[in-house]
Each structure stands twice: as structure tokens, then as C-alpha cells.
């Protein structure tokens, strides 16, 4: 029988997961509202992206079964139109009302009655219990911000974690010392929330979703089909949700297998992306698919079942579906209702869903003692085969002991051994559980400290040129000490719990129901959050099509979505009632794309070449978007200031820009959008201080601007930034509608007619021909090439310093956007390193020299002889040219120019590891050679010699490491001389880290390095031949 059931359940879930897998590319389901008795969907439609799902309707039809029906109503429901109230299609009869009252009496109130019958226990109070609000609000880190929290060191002084754990262990109703239970508002080691009273009134972390309003109560005795939107919930992949002992209900000589839950929502789930969550080290996707709703249910029956499963069995006390903003009288209806789906397949692709009243009847029938006291003697006399059969049927079953903590547990074994022949005892329930991390070696401070020292020593020995035997012994000793702690009985994660079966009742529910149920808090949080983001759309004035992009912009790096509620409650319930041995994926899934610390991680990520086609990033927080948004904000500010203040010099423009783009001001703009109410961040001390929160808000604002720029383009980002900068319409109009460049004002159409009379402009036409761009206003190009030493003239109306200010911001934006799109696995710091290798004086000067810009520089030298320009001057020329190109032709021309002249160099920078300057690289190599327990040695630079006049000096610098000179360099400035000394040291000194990096790159890109060297040799040969031909 179990084999057949397993086969059927496997087939059922595989078919539905296959369908769900097809739906994964859609990003959304379709909301439908059922009206009338025919079960037709009157409302359909969700916004679908044509790019992501070109054939949405066709694939969606494939997801639905050919037809659906419910099992017979059996006088529990009436579909007679004369009996209907409001917008229902089915109404409950008096027989159904009697069933509800029986269920509420037998099962609904059993838990509360059992608790009330037990003696009331007053736990010993801690200092935090005496006045929790004062303990946090009076703390040193209390802030005036509305979204501030407080969990500073003062809290840790009054709150003793060890005492709290002992208090929970001492509860007289505790089922077993190794089984952990849930209390409202509590984690295993203390209160869930240590925020101030003011902070608790806002924030997604407190389950307060902006824009939510109370929901009008459903009519309890009908199905409210006209106002509820129905979705079928599936999870993919099926790992850990496909069990060999599914929950099965037998009805009318058929077996109905549990396949998951139906979700009824009061609002259509439009523009809600799929929900993704990592659990058991596996990346799961929760799909919600619109489907014709089963008719035979009433809302009161759904609420009775939900209260029994989620409150009495799983004890999810902190899962709130109304919202803490509303008091008990005005809270209204639950935002979502859930119906368990017990189904069987029918011919021609149909499916039959078990009516809800049959589910309640099954739970009532199943509710009986696990081992009746009057049958113990008979059970002990059973043959071994008969007992084994009964014990096998009980495996995976959830049993409950009302009033105990926890109330319910999964049976993994049932043993009937009698240790005392004179006394008959109840059979023993064996449960294999997991001890909470706080109480195992994973949460032990001594273990954590020892583990960190072990990893540190292992890393040091791996980079040490000579490893001593005593150091090897230290490493072995620490490894053995770690293993010893892990093997302690009091520290092991896995525990075996033995309980007397006395007082336990069968529930009829197995672990597969609990496994699916524990995904629902994650899904409802995801839905509610995306619905509240629609309120943010109104504040922004822009509606995102890619909803995940907006969520990403609001996600702080500290945020991790795993349970959607009190994490300890979810872990305890999964351990007590979930499947016994879940299959775990690769642990790297948590940090594969998130880890950014450590030199090995740095080398690994920075060795990756860019993607040819734009690729989505798997880094799920907003630091990359903040990196992009920072460049967009700086660009917009620079452009508007440049045009609005045509006579202001570069220094004044930079001062104004700094005032606008500084974090303090951006945090004020974020406050206008109320971003602190929408931000996702950890419910802990990360942002407890006002300064930290404001900094995070500024970063979130930049990420939002970056997201708007990515999806809506530069104009949308410009309009949003302008609306937030100025409250009055007049100032906003001035900011947004800036005048043209003064040179464009003088000649609105074009000034190329002046070329005939100007030798300077005539010379610049040669440069235009070389780059293939004809300027509409060629005087802009002349202005870009006019050095600062040239006085005011009517041709250019000034020098190029202002243009250099603008060109730098333009290059930053274009380079940032390219890196963001083509390097999806790089974090913000890695992207910054790559951008620095592109947008720096050395690279810019090299490009300017290759284009021959120095030949067209306009100077005050009357001899007209070629002038040798310094690196900084050449770089300024290029930035000024970029600004002139943008003013005359627009941003698209700048993109093309950098695609040709800059971005191809990235491959060479990565293969040669030129993304890091020599001084930083030398310091990293020196730090890898540090000795444990001592301050790390760092390279020291000393100026040995200074020769030449003040305007043309040459500096000689040496670098020392551990008292030994390891390199020497010369340069026109101390900084360049230090760079030369560091480069010399890297080439001469035998650093293990440098050797490792070279081997790593050589193995990874052997072919690319060969081609690059071959190309370099070819270019050098062509250069030599050209020089010989010139001679």
C-alpha cells in the first residue's frame, strides 16, 4: 500500500513541479476572480513582460488541468442561487455549521483548555522584563529617527542570554529538555525585538507594511467567491517536499493525496514576481498559479483549519496576517486564507479536489489517542510483525500533547520495550531532532574563537615560505580541539529524544503538510512586501515594470530572507514537525555570490573576464545598484551645475556638487520618499544608531536612482532627482530646464562656418577626420583643447578646466554602467577597482596619446613647436574632449567612444592584474607573511634623494620590509616614485602570494595570455619598422 501511495504521490508532484518549472520563466501568475455558479474566471490578467515571457497565455494554459471539480457537497453546502448571499457561489448549510461547532469544540479549543487546566507558572524575571521599553529607549544609542532601533551594549548588560536559556529550560510544561518550543515574541535565547517603543511602530522588520489597510471581513458561512482570488501554490525543486509517506485521505473508495495549499487573496496578485528562498542550502522557487477555485469550502472552515495547524500544531505565534498597525476591533479579515489540497487525478487531464468539510471530518476521525490506555496490554502481546506494521504506519506522523511545550512532535520510531516486568509502561516515541544553533557547538563562543584562530593559522602557513614543525603541530592541536568540542554530547547538533506516548493524540497530519506549511510565511511576506512597494511607486512617481529591481534597491546587505517570520519559531517547528532527514544542498549557496572578504576571494573574482552579453547578477543586495546610482547622481549634479553656472570655475562647481551628493543630503531626500519604511535589513543592531541608519538610507536612495536609471533611462532618473531636490515648482523648473552652453547660444544652429577664417579650427578638422566625428559646434572641441595657460579669447570663451570637471563625471557614469552590466559577479568594491583601472590619469593619458591629442592642444606658445605634455595634462585633455563630445552629440556618442578606446583594455588589465596599483598589491603580499600573535609588518617608504629644480624635480624612493630594502624607484613626484619602488619590489622579492596569483591566472587563461603576448610582439614589431622607415 505504501509503495503504491509513494508512486502516486511522486507522479503527482513531479507533474505539478514540471508545470511549475515551465511557469518559472513567466515571473508571475494570473489573478482570477470567480463569479457565478459556473466557476468561470471573470477577472484575469497580470502584467507580463514580453521580453521574459513571449508566449505567456499559451504556457499558462498548459499549467492548468483540463478541468477541475470538487467532491460531493453531501448536504454540507448549497449552490442554489436562492440561498446565496452577496457574491458567493456556495453557502454552508446547518449541517456544516454543526460540523464547525464540533470541530471547534473537539480540536479548536483543546490546546487552550489544556493550558488553562495546568497550574500557572510565573518564570523568574530578568531586568529586561521589568521595563522592556525603558531598557531600550533610555539607551545611549536611542535616536530621534522614526526608524531607529536600539540594541546597544547597554542592553547586553541587563539582558543575560544564559539566564534566559535556563529560564526556558526550567518550564514545568516542557515536553523534553532537548525539544525547544515557541513563545510569542521570543527567540530561543531571549526577546525577538529589542527595539525602542518608537522604533517598533515602523519598519518591515516589525511586519508593518506601508499602505496596508484593514480588510473587510469575509462572510464566514459562504465561499466569498466574488471577492477572493485563488492561487495554487507549488514549490520547485521538489527536494524535501516529496516524501515516501504522504498524508492521504480515503474517501468514497479513493485515495486523495496532499499536494500543497491553495491561497485565497483579497487582492489580485498582479505584478508580483516569483518568490525565491534558500532553505536546506537549496535555492527554492515558490510559484503561485491562478487556477479555478474549488467551490466546496467556507471561510470559517479555512480559518478553523489554519488555527489548528498554524497555532496549535506548529505554534507559529508570531505569524500575523492582519498587521500590527490595526487594533483588535478594526483588524478586519485575514489577508490570506489557506486550503489544504487533497487531490486525485481524473481521466482526460482532470483533477478532483477533496471538499473542505471532508478534510475537517478526517481530522476529527484521526483525533484519538496514539496508544489507548485500555489497549496497552493487548499491544504488548502483538506479534512482532503486527507491531512493526503499526510502528511503520506511525512513522512520519505528527502527534500532539495539548498544553505541553512544544505541543506536537514527529514520530520517527515507536518502541514497546518494557524495562520493568512488574510495571506496564506506554510505548516510547523516538524523535530525532536538531539542537538550536545557540546551544550547539556552532553557537559556542569558545568553539567560534578556536575556529577563527585555526582558519587564520592555516592561511598563514599556506602563505609562509618556510613552515616550521612547531607551527604544524599547533595547527593539528587546534583541529583536534575543534573535533573534541564537536563530539561532546552537550554540543552536538543532532539529538535523540525519547518520550512516553502517554497523553499523545494522533492528528492525521504527516510531516509533508508541515513542510509545505512552513513555506507559507515566506510567501505571504513576499506578497505583502511587493504590494506595499506599489505604495512606494506612488511616492516615486514611477512604476517599475521589473518589480525585483525595486526590491533589490531596498535590500540592505544585512538582510537575509529565509523564514519570513521569527526565525527560531520556524526552525523549532521544522525540527519538531518537518521531515526527519532533509536533503541538503551545497553550503556554498549562501556565500557563493555574497562573500567578498579575503585576498583569495579578491583574486578569484577579479580574475573573471566580463560577459559579452548583459547578464543578471546573483548578488541579492543593493550595493551594486548603489555603485551605479552614485555615478548617476554625480553625473546629474555635475551636468546641471555646469549648465546653470556657466561662469563658475571648477573649484566652485566641485564645492556645490559635494554639498548635493554628500550622504547627509541624500539621506534627507530618502526621508522625503520614506525609504526607511520600505528598507529591508536585519532585525538587529546593524542600523541601531541614527548615523548608521541615515548612511544606509543615503545608500538606498542611490540604489533607487540606479534602478530607475537602469529601467526608465536617464530622463526618468533626472526628473525624479529634480522633483526631490526642490519643493517649489519654480526652482524645479529652473533646475530641470537649464540653458544651452554659451558657445551654442552664440551660434544656435552650427558654428562650422567659422572654420574658413580660423586656423585653429582648421587644424581641429584633421582631428575630427581621424576620429570620424564632425562636431556641430566645433568651438566646443577647441574649448576642450585649450589649456589653462591660455588667456580669455572670443573663440573659445575660456579654457578647458570646467569641461574637465564635467568629463570626469561623464566617464565615471559610462564606465560604471558598462561594468555593472558586464561584470555581474563583482561586488561594489571589485567594480570600483576595475573602474579605477579605466578612469585614471595613466589610462586616459595613454588613450589621448594614441589619438594624438597632444598635437592639437591649444597653448600660449607662439613658436607652435610640439609641446611635451605631462600625464595629468593629457588626462585632462581627454576628459575635456569627452565633455565636448557629450555637449555636442549626447551620451550615446560617449558610450561608443569608450566602447572603442577604453573597454577593450579591461581584458589586458585583468590578465595582467593591473586593476590594483603596485603599492596596494605590495601591502597585500606583505600582510600574507604576518606572524600569528604579532602586529603585521607593512612596507615602509623612504625618500633617498631629490634632484632638479622645483618645477622639474626627480625623487628617488626606496621601500623596506622587515628592515630590508626590497625595491627602489624614481619619478617626478614622491607618489610616482613610491609606485616605482613598489613595482620593483614585486618583481624582485619572492612573495608566495604573487607566485600564487601568477600561477592562478596562467592556469585559468593560458590561451588568452599567449594570444595577448603574440599581439604585443606584433605591435612592437610594427612600431620598430615604422620608426626605421621614418629614419
TrEMBL record:
GO terms for molecular function: metal ion binding; primary miRNA binding; ribonuclease III activity. InterPro entries: dsRBD_dom (IPR014720), Helical_CED_Drosha (IPR058938), RNase_III (IPR011907), RNase_III_dom (IPR000999), RNAse_III_DSRM__animal (IPR044442), RNase_III_sf (IPR036389). Its EC number is 3.1.26.3. Residues 109-129, 1011-1021 have a biased composition (Basic and acidic residues). The keyword Nucleus applies. Residues 917-991 form the DRBM domain. Residues 130-145, 1022-1031 have a biased composition (Acidic residues). Gene3D superfamilies: 3.30.160.20, Ribonuclease III domain. It is found in: Cytoplasm; Nucleus, Nucleolus. Residues 146-155 have a biased composition (Low complexity). Ribonuclease III double-stranded (ds) RNA-specific endoribonuclease that is involved in the initial step of microRNA (miRNA) biogenesis. Component of the microprocessor complex that is required to process primary miRNA transcripts (pri-miRNAs) to release precursor miRNA (pre-miRNA) in the nucleus. Within the microprocessor complex, DROSHA cleaves the 3' and 5' strands of a stem-loop in pri-miRNAs (processing center 11 bp from the dsRNA-ssRNA junction) to release hairpin-shaped pre-miRNAs that are subsequently cut by the cytoplasmic DICER to generate mature miRNAs. Belongs to the ribonuclease III family. HAMAP family: RNase_III (MF_00104). Residues 25-64, 109-155, 1011-1031 are annotated as: Disordered. GO terms for cellular component: cytoplasm; microprocessor complex; nucleolus. It catalyses: Endonucleolytic cleavage to 5'-phosphomonoester. Keywords: Cytoplasm, Endonuclease, Hydrolase, Magnesium, Manganese, Metal-binding, Nuclease, Nucleus, Phosphoprotein, Repeat, Ribosome biogenesis, RNA-binding, Signal. Residues 1-21 form the signal peptide. Component of the microprocessor complex, or pri-miRNA processing protein complex, which is composed of DROSHA and DGCR8. The microprocessor complex is a heterotrimer; each of the two DROSHA RNase III domains binds one DGCR8 (via C-terminal region). Interacts with SP1 and SNIP1. Interacts with SRRT/ARS2. Interacts with CPSF3 and ISY1; this interaction is in an RNA dependent manner. Interacts with PUS10; interaction promotes pri-miRNAs processing. This is Ribonuclease 3.
Amino acid at each position: 500500500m505504501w509503495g503504491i501511495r509513494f508512486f502516486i504521490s511522486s507522479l503527482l508532484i513531479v507533474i505539478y513541479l514540471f508545470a511549475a518549472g515551465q511557469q518559472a520563466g513567466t515571473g508571475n501568475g494570473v489573478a482570477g476572480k470567480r463569479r457565478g455558479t459556473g466557476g468561470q474566471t471573470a477577472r484575469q490578467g497580470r502584467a507580463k513582460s514580453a521580453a521574459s515571457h513571449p508566449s505567456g497565455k499559451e504556457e499558462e494554459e498548459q499549467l492548468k488541468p483540463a478541468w477541475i471539480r470538487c467532491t460531493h457537497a453531501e448536504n454540507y453546502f448549497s449552490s442554489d442561487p436562492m440561498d446565496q448571499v452577496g457574491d458567493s457561489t456556495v453557502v454552508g448549510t446547518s449541517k456544516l455549521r454543526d460540523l464547525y461547532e464540533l470541530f471547534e469544540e473537539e480540536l479548536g479549543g483543546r490546546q487552550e483548555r489544556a493550558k488553562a487546566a495546568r497550574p500557572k507558572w510565573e518564570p523568574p524575571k530578568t531586568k529586561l522584563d521589568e521595563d522592556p521599553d525603558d531598557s531600550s529607549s533610555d539607551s545611549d544609542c536611542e535616536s530621534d529617527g522614526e526608524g531607529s532601533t536600539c540594541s546597544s551594549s547597554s542592553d547586553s548588560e541587563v539582558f543575560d542570554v544564559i539566564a534566559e536559556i535556563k529560564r526556558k529550560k526550567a518550564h514545568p510544561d516542557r515536553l523534553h529538555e532537548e525539544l525547544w518550543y515557541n513563545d510569542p515574541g521570543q527567540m530561543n535565547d531571549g526577546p525577538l525585538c529589542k527595539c525602542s517603543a518608537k522604533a517598533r511602530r515602523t519598519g518591515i522588520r516589525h511586519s508593518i507594511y506601508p499602505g496596508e489597510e484593514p480588510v473587510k471581513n469575509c462572510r464566514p458561512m459562504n465561499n466569498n467567491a466574488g471577492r477572493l482570488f485563488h492561487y495554487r501554490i507549488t514549490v520547485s525543486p521538489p527536494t524535501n517536499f516529496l516524501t515516501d509517506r504522504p498524508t492521504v485521505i480515503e474517501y468514497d473508495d479513493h485515495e486523495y493525496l496532499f499536494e500543497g495549499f491553495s491561497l485565497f487573496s483579497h487582492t489580485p496578485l498582479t505584478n508580483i514576481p516569483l518568490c525565491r528562498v534558500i532553505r536546506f542550502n537549496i535555492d527554492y522557487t515558490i510559484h503561485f498559479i491562478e487556477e479555478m477555485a474549488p467551490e466546496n469550502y467556507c471561510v470559517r472552515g479555512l480559518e478553523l483549519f489554519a488555527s489548528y495547524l498554524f497555532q496549535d500544531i506548529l505554534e507559529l505565534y508570531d505569524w500575523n496576517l492582519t498587521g500590527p498597525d490595526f487594533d483588535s476591533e478594526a483588524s478586519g479579515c485575514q489577508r490570506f486564507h489557506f486550503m489544504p489540497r487533497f487531490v486525485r487525478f481524473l481521466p482526460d487531464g482532470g483533477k478532483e479536489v477533496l471538499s473542505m468539510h471532508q478534510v475537517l471530518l478526517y481530522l476529527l476521525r484521526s483525533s484519538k489517542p496514539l496508544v489507548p490506555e485500555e489497549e496497552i496490554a493487548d499491544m504488548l502481546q502483538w506479534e512482532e510483525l503486527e507491531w512493526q506494521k503499526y510502528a511503520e504506519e506511525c512513522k512520519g506522523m505528527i502527534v500532539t500533547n495539548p498544553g505541553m511545550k512544544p505541543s506536537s512532535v514527529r514520530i520517527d520510531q515507536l518502541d514497546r520495550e518494557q524495562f520493568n516486568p512488574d510495571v506496564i509502561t506506554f510505548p516510547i516515541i523516538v524523535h530525532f531532532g536538531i539542537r538550536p544553533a545557540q546551544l550547539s557547538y556552532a553557537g559556542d563562543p569558545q568553539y567560534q574563537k578556536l575556529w577563527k584562530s585555526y582558519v587564520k593559522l592555516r592561511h598563514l602557513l599556506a602563505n609562509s615560505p618556510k613552515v616550521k614543525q612547531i607551527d604544524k603541530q599547533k595547527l593539528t592541536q587546534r583541529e583536534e580541539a575543534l573535533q573534541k568540542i564537536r563530539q561532546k554530547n552537550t554540543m552536538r547538533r543532532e539529538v535523540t529524544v525519547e518520550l512516553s506516548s502517554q497523553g499523545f493524540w494522533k492528528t492525521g497530519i504527516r510531516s509533508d503538510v508541515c513542510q509545505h506549511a512552513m513555506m507559507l510565511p515566506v510567501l505571504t511576506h513576499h506578497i505583502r512586501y511587493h504590494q506595499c512597494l506599489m505604495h512606494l511607486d506612488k511616492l516615486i512617481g514611477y512604476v517599475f515594470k521589473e518589480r525585483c529591481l525595486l526590491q533589490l534597491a531596498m535590500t540592505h546587505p544585512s538582510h537575509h530572507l529565509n523564514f519570513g517570520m521569527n526565525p527560531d519559531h520556524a526552525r523549532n517547528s521544522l525540527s519538531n514537525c518537518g521531515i526527519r532527514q532533509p536533503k541538503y544542498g551545497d553550503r556554498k549557496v549562501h556565500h557563493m555570490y555574497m562573500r567578498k572578504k579575503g585576498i583569495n576571494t579578491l583574486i578569484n573574482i577579479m580574475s573573471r573576464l566580463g560577459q559579452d552579453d548583459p547578464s543578471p547578477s546573483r548578488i541579492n543586495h543593493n550595493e551594486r545598484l548603489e555603485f551605479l546610482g552614485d555615478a548617476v547622481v554625480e553625473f546629474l549634479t555635475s551636468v546641471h551645475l555646469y549648465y546653470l553656472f556657466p561662469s563658475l570655475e571648477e573649484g566652485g562647481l566641485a564645492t556645490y556638487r559635494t554639498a548635493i551628493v554628500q550622504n547627509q543630503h541624500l539621506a534627507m531626500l530618502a526621508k522625503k520618499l520614506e525609504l526607511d519604511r520600505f528598507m529591508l535589513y536585519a532585525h538587529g543592531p546593524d542600523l541601531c544608531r541614527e548615523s548608521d541608519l541615515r548612511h544606509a538610507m543615503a545608500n538606498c536612495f542611490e540604489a533607487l536612482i540606479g534602478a530607475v536609471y537602469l529601467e526608465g533611462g536617464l530622463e526618468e532618473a533626472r526628473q525624479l532627482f529634480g522633483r526631490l531636490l526642490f519643493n517649489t515648482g519654480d526652482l524645479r523648473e529652473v533646475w530641470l530646464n537649464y540653458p544651452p552652453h554659451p558657445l551654442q547660444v552664440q551660434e544656435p544652429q552650427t558654428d562650422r562656418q567659422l572654420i574658413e577664417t580660423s586656423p585653429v579650427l582648421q587644424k581641429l578638422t584633421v582631428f575630427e577626420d581621424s576620429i570620424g566625428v564632425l562636431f556641430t559646434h566645433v568651438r566646443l572641441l577647441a574649448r576642450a583643447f585649450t589649456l589653462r595657460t591660455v588667456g580669455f579669447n572670443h573663440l573659445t570663451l575660456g579654457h578647458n578646466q570646467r569641461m574637465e570637471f564635467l568629463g570626469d563625471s561623464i566617464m565615471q557614469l559610462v564606465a560604471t554602467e558598462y561594468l555593472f552590466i558586464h561584470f555581474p559577479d563583482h561586488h561594489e568594491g571589485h567594480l570600483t577597482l576595475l573602474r579605477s583601472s579605466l578612469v585614471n590619469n595613466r589610462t586616459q593619458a595613454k588613450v589621448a596619446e594614441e589619438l594624438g591629442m597632444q598635437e592639437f592642444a591649444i597653448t600660449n606658445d607662439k613658436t607652435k613647436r610640439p609641446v611635451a605634455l605631462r600625464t595629468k595634462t593629457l588626462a585632462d585633455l581627454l576628459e575635456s574632449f569627452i565633455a565636448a563630445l557629450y555637449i555636442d552629440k549626447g551620451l550615446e556618442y560617449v558610450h561608443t567612444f569608450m566602447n572603442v578606446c577604453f573597454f577593450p583594455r579591461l581584458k589586458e588589465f585583468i590578465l595582467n592584474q593591473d586593476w590594483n596599483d603596485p603599492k596596494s598589491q605590495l601591502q597585500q603580499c606583505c600582510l600574507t607573511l604576518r606572524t600569528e600573535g604579532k602586529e603585521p609588518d607593512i612596507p615602509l617608504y623612504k625618500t633617498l634623494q631629490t634632484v632638479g629644480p622645483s618645477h622639474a624635480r626627480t625623487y628617488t624612493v626606496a621601500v623596506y620590509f622587515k628592515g630590508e630594502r626590497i625595491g627602489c624607484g624614481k619619478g617626478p613626484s614622491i607618489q610616482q616614485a613610491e609606485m616605482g619602488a613598489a613595482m620593483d619590489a614585486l618583481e624582485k622579492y619572492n612573495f608566495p602570494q604573487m607566485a600564487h596569483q601568477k600561477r592562478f591566472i596562467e592556469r585559468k587563461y593560458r590561451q588568452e595570455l599567449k594570444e595577448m603576448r603574440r599581439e604585443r610582439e606584433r605591435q612592437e614589431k610594427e612600431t620598430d619598422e615604422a620608426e626605421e622607415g621614418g629614419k
